[in-house]
Amino acid sequence: MNHSQITENIRKKQSLLCVGLDTDINKIPKHLLKEADPVFEFNKALIDATKEFAVAYKLNTAFYEAQGINGWISLDKTLAYIPKDIFTIADAKRGDIGNTSEQYARTFFYTYPFDSVTVAPYMGKDSVSPFLQFDGKWAIVLGLTSNVGSADFQLLNCGTEFLFNKVLQKVASWGTINNTMFVVGATQSQRLKEIRHLLPEHFFLIPGVGAQGGDLDSVCRNTLNKNAGILINASRNIIYAGNDAYFAEAAANEAYKLQTEMKRYL
Amino acid sequence: MNHSQITENIRKKQSLLCVGLDTDINKIPKHLLKEADPVFEFNKALIDATKEFAVAYKLNTAFYEAQGINGWISLDKTLAYIPKDIFTIADAKRGDIGNTSEQYARTFFYTYPFDSVTVAPYMGKDSVSPFLQFDGKWAIVLGLTSNVGSADFQLLNCGTEFLFNKVLQKVASWGTINNTMFVVGATQSQRLKEIRHLLPEHFFLIPGVGAQGGDLDSVCRNTLNKNAGILINASRNIIYAGNDAYFAEAAANEAYKLQTEMKRYL
Questions:
Q1: Which terminus of chain B has fewer Cβ atoms in its 10 Å neighbourhood, N or C?
Q2: Domain spanning B3-263: CATH 3.40.720.10
């Protein structure tokens, strides 16, 4: 999926919402556990309930990997169930030396045909570049993350700038606005504006609204650009909004609420 | 497996060798492709051929993940086949926010019961700490990697030190020498001595000898400590030493050659 298709979907649906299907089998409604594939049944119901409001789905691979083979089967079925016009993200945070990153790119662009994969930048250019070689596919590189630990290294002063600034600029120079996005945490409200200033045209994937405490208004005011340019992820708030037979309705309500708020900025 | 067991194995086998089973199905001898699980048959033969000389096996998960479910089955069988007294490493380079890193720790310590997993440090303390909560299990955190791209960020000046120095010291302060190791590339020969000086007691996993150009003599002279303190990984040199019916013998020869060299330093 290319840059303008993502923007078009955002305009059409009047939504910036990415639903994070970070599905923990220990947190899903108990009645689903009798199903052959409870995680898929949960995801399927959530997709049906939220697809009207979502322009992207993000699957954090950790939750699937922890279930072994069954987890990968659930992931595969979930990915196949997502409507083709909705952008898909393998939130896998991979990165390795060149020949190995290439294997990861194959994993998440072909074996499991996601539109994009999140990538950790610590190992530098040859660890990121292999993800930039596929038409219509995206690397979403960690810039400034939403967690407390982001202060440990990302906010180190490297000369006149923070490390995350160096990462954003250098990684941006390796790709284009058509194959590179950045993860920028909603919780970093005091830095969102300077990050948008640094990279006026790139798409940002913005987690941290909701459970992690980020503020939607501050995110939208500081990072929207002329092509929208942001995907705002919400996971726990939506997928665990309810925990009974009506969990999907509860999720739909949360997604609708978020989309209604987002619409005001578009 | 604890620190002193690893050291004991090194003394007993007179070896620092970690064999990297980074098995690419496109590079294994053609006659294996008729087997039901070619990757496992290849690994099994390699383990049989090299276990006398190896104190650790490292499976780079990328090569397995790229094969989908079949890859995870091969990985699982390979891990189960490795003798229990040999240290095992899931070279997965994972790292995410706290609740997610916990899922990765479960994946590589329980779902697939490795002794250790490699971890990317960019997201800071809450992304690394979840790997440090399991008795006898290890996080092997990226310090200064062997690839060219290591210069992009790891060698940035952050105040009076390089970023990798900050990472080594900070991460070391979060764990102990019994649950934390560091990846230090053999190709970084001019920095090995200062890294050992910085962390006199930690184990280092040292890739980059062989195909990547690192020098065994320089590695041993600069990083061995009183408990040995290093595992030296070789992958492509060993596992692709031969490409015909005698590939396992060729691998055994390469492993034996490396072990014989290593013995001189122990």
A1: C
A2: no
